[in-house]
Design a protein that fits this description.
3-stranded antiparallel sheet, 3 strands, C-N_Hydrolase, acyltransferase, Apolipo_AcylTrfase, transmembrane, Apolipoprotein N-acyltransferase
Length: about 90
């Protein structure tokens, strides 16, 4: 799931877990470094900082809500437009 977050935000994702999987994931979704379950360790990696915004980081889930409203509007329009008849 974190790989998709890295891709949609075009940012590196760094996950630090006490007993889970720790990893560095780049902006393309590739796992660069990883420490497995219940393993101890550390890694050092240089991560670029970004100041730009992607559509998702700028607008978030509003795009999903708008798509839902459009589909709902079409369904309501079709139902009302047919007079409630199912031909």
């Amino acid at each position: 799931l974190l790989r998709y977050r890295a891709i949609e935000s075009e940012r590196f994702v760094i996950r630090s877990a006490k007993t889970g999987i720790s990893a560095i994931i780049d902006s393309k979704g590739r796992v660069l470094k990883r420490i497995g379950l219940f393993k101890r360790g550390y890694f050092i990696h240089e991560v670029p900082l970004k100041n730009n915004f992607t559509p998702y980081t700028r607008y978030g889930d509003i795009i999903v809500y708008l798509a839902f409203l459009i589909v709902l509007s079409i369904l309501v329009y079709n139902k009302l437009g047919s007079g409630g008849r199912n031909d």
